[in-house]
Design goal:
The protein is an alpha/beta fold. The protein is built from 6 helices and 13 strands.
């Protein structure tokens, strides 16, 4: 069974991102970039399925700029078998990515496609669902547990009322939530081995696609700075401050 994992290169969520001075977007020139954390969980799950003998090959694919190849190398160091970068300098909106992934799936014929449930840069939670609709495959989102048995998969997902279990016929789409697993760190020997693993590059035009930006960002502004909080020594002081400073108590 072949597993296709889609990954996105995003700004490291542990660093503070600033806006450009003209408010036209984010200033990512000197920002550390990394793999979208939810996609990292998807890669880990695919590698575990291959290590368990359930999958035979794990292929990672990314749609983005040339530097996204570095992110694919990270996935290869985690244990993926080969990578595919569909290069584009355009902003990769969910529908465009879903179209490219649909075309890649047509060539690769995977039995399972894993994605992160959302990207942490734009918080979009759409690509997996759009991809399932385009392929006409069953989908299970927000997976916290995944079991594959033959041509069927069972997904446990967290919902407001508890846990929901969904049975899927393969091929299918599954998006990964935080509790699905804890991704491994790539060891130095595996990082060196990843440099020799195949990483193919293609263009959207190779699939007969043109990526067009459908959304226009007019302007971005940072939220107003919040005043620093204070600690009070007693309830009496708190009540006094609420009366005299905040004016919320009479």
């Amino acid at each position: 069974m072949k597993i296709l994992v889609a990954i996105k290169r995003v700004a490291d969520p542990n660093v503070k991102v600033r806006l450009r001075s003209d408010g036209s977007g984010l200033d990512l020139a000197a920002i550390k970039m990394t793999m979208n954390p939810f996609d990292e969980i998807a890669v880990e799950e695919a590698v575990r399925l291959r290590e368990a003998g359930i999958a035979s090959e794990v292929v990672v694919v990314s749609v983005g700029p040339e530097k996204a190849a570095e992110t694919l190398r990270t996935a290869l160091a985690m244990g993926a078998d080969r990578g595919l970068l569909v290069r584009t300098e355009a902003t990769t909106e969910p529908l465009a990515v879903a179209k490219v992934l649909s075309a890649v799936a047509g060539e690769e014929q995977p039995a399972l496609i894993l994605l992160g449930k959302q990207a942490v840069d734009d918080d979009c939670n759409q690509t997996g669902q759009m991809l399932a609709a385009k392929l006409g495959w069953p989908q299970a989102t927000f997976a916290s547990q995944l079991t594959v048995d033959g041509d069927r998969a069972t997904v446990v997902r967290e919902v407001d009322g508890g846990l929901q279990t969904i049975a899927l016929a393969l091929p299918a789409i599954v998006t990964a939530d935080l509790r699905l697993n804890e991704p491994r760190y790539a060891s130095l020997p595996n990082i060196m081995k990843a440099k020799k693993k195949p990483l193919e590059q293609k263009q959207p035009s190779d699939y007969g696609l043109v990526i067009e930006e459908r959304l226009e960002v007019v302007r971005l502004e940072e939220p107003p700075t919040r005043a620093a909080g204070i600690k009070v020594k007693s309830v009496a002081e708190l009540v006094e401050r609420l009366k005299t400073e905040a004016g919320v108590l009479a």
